[in-house]
Amino acid sequence: MKKNQWFLFCFPVLLFGLSGCVSPQIDSSGTDLIQATPLSAAELGEGFQAQYLPDASNIHQFSGTIDVALDFEGTQVGWKKVASEYERLQSNKVKVNINDNLSGSTYSSKLNEELLNPNTDWDICEGNLGYTNIRGSTINMYSAFQAPNAYCGKDTKWANVLSQTAYRQSASDTSAVAQIVNSEIMQSCWFVNTVAMTAAGEKGYKNSEGEVAYPKTWDDLISLCSYMEDAGYTNPLGISLASSSVESLQFTWLLRIYGDYYYRQFYKYSMASDVWTSYSGTREDVETFAGFGFRFPKVMHLLFDEEDNQLPCGYVGFHSDVYKDFVSQLAKMKGHLMENVDSTEFSALRDLFRTQSRGKSSPQIILDYQGFGLNYLGATSSSFSVGYFDYPTMVSGKFSSGDREGESIVPENTITRDIGGNGGFLSIINHLGNKAQNDLNQDFLKFFLSPYGQTIYYQGLAENGVVPKGLSTVKNELIVIPQAWKDYFANSGKTITFSGNVDQNVFLSYGVRYVVGYKNTQAIITENWRKLLMSNVGSVFSVTAFCNQWADACFKDMKLMCADNNWPTDAYLNPNLNL
User: Fold this and answer.
1) Residue 231 pLDDT > 90, yes or no?
2) Distance (Å, rounded) from C-alpha 450 to C-alpha 454?
3) What is the set of domains in the chain, with CATH numbers?
4) Category of 421 on φ-ψ map: left (φ > 0), alpha (ψ -120 to 50) or beta
């Protein structure tokens, strides 16, 4: 049972069978305000603005325990320093446990158990990895963003020290629902060992511009892998097929980036408003156009109605040229992935790339967070020097039939966009009936995402040689940030050009990655991509076989979605259905 579980009038049987009547978290020993003195601006470091120091006259004293359970990816040292300072300010009447014993797919599986467990000890989790109903299992923090946060200074509204990325899930999100608060502004990019790239050039590698330089197209990337292999680097492509990677981390970035690249052209056939017809593949911010908004019957019609399509672009679902070409592009990675790629977690892949501990059998190209380039730059040696580049553009195949026969499947000049923007993805598990515990957990998150808390967090990282994935969603000018980090992000930002809105693409959630929230697609996504991409699977698994199995799983989940929403099970047949 969660420590200090407490219910009004102590009726333990009514809510999930919890028992016990323990006092709430607000201390009743005499005063409800903290007695400890916050650190001074000088103690926090040069440049910290005193007006954003915690206002101790408005910070309540709590008592109790908070369990922070995340897949920290090395950042727990920063969290522990923040936890220690929070405990000090709370006169050590609060204990913050940093639970860092789970990572990768093990963490994801455990998280989904805890989100459904009414007696969980977990308090703060990584909400984006939860496949269960996040809105039903976690608290909405939106009102807290609009209210003063005393950890940010006197009468300072919390939202005033945050970028909108912190509490909006996308650039176009104006929802008053914030089950997840983003703590980092992230971008991702490709990193390459330029020593190996030079060796590939000596064997004949050139990119599509005729230079021994970073890949510009997806075929350049695959070609670079082949020439690296000619130079003695075995299986150089560092992409993980561990469950956590395929479901929510590195590999799924490829599905999101290139799924958006292939399917963004169909926005204009999917809009709720018939007036919304403008679209340009060269626009980064198409989701911000007036009139933008998906109509789900149209989306389902495009993806599922193979026989009687009523929209001008025709059927673009899982048996179409569009989807088959998308899968075929990713299938080109087969033969270039390292051994045991299915059991190599993303964190282990990073270490292999950075240390080159397996010599020429180490990965030479890796997809990762921009911030982790700081680690790679620090690992320079005679056999390793890092460079970085944006997602290369895929040059698609041609339509094989229909009105567009012979045309490029993806219109020329369509840009690739990044997964970037939101990161950190912190949620507070809702302990139903225990407002005091929820208030305590939210208080700690308000502390963590304050200029004071983030400065201390960065101190903890820097003291231990750990770097962030991206910079904080707390406005950076309010935080003391190590100069080397500032310089790196400024320089790499000239090459890594766009942080993207790819996750606004509804096709990702209704077919490219899965049918969100439903079991048939979630059950086979990892298995199918492994069968397609791994060289050592028992039998050949073709693109056609992949598409057939995926179409079947998506169709089953679409039917479940219709049933759950009380829609007709054949809703996909009518794009103009009023749901």
Assistant:
1) yes
2) 6
3) 52-185+422-481 (3.40.190.10), 188-417+498-573 (3.40.190.10)
4) left
